[in-house]
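User: For a benchmark we're assembling, each entry needs the component sequences followed by a predicted structure for the full assembly. Here are entry 17's components. Please fill in the structure.
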Amino acid sequence: MHCKSGGKCMAHVNLFLIAFLALIVWRLVFASLQRSRLARAIAPQQQRHDNLFEEVLHISDPGSVAVIAGNRFENSSDSSCSLGPNDRAKAYLRRVVAITNATQMGDGYVLDVGTTRFQVRDRYVRRLRYAADLKCGYEETCFYSIHEGMPKAEEIATALLQLRNNPALFDKWAVQNGQAIKADGQVFSHAH
Amino acid sequence: MNAKILTFSSNGDKTLLEYDPATADMEEVNNVIAEYEAQTGAQPFDMATGERIEKITREHNEILMVDPIAGG
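Assistant: Structure for entry 17:
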């Protein structure tokens, strides 16, 4: 830059510095506002979760348990926190499919436990006694979580986990008397 | 890294507890989970192996409380 006088040159430099600093300040303020908006959005949800859990468990002093209630999501970057319930449910289903060695087939999932094959789809599960012999026929029953409104992916994940650990649960579900069966095969009687 | 205990619900997954496994009183954690099971029928599964857990230890990092299922 050519300056005819030192004063004019300094004025230009000062003007540039002021503009640059203003831009940095604006960026910082904008980022801070974004964070506080996000915090305000999360806080009520967190409060509801905490209240519910304390209410259910009647925890008089949660701090004494060295336990912190929270809504952070393991394995997740910040971006997964912004996923909706259905997307997170699908993500959990994918993890459960992987750890149970199930495979997706069409709109359902195939789970082999010993010589028994289960085909699990939304609210229905089919059992083939001998996985390799398709001529043996199959039995089918429906199933549902006792918590209404649970995302479909989470219901399927629940069934896959339970059948893998306890394939005899199929027979209990097949009775179809509406009784809730716990993962260990025991009947659950509602506390309320 | 904190360990956490979560469950599925009508609003998707929900974290019930988050704690430091190095310092938490695991007996107390198991008591809390036992009470939760009594209220809801949900039982704990290890999300690393997919196995049902009888007793939560410091080695468990992510536990899913799996709700009862009904047929019909």
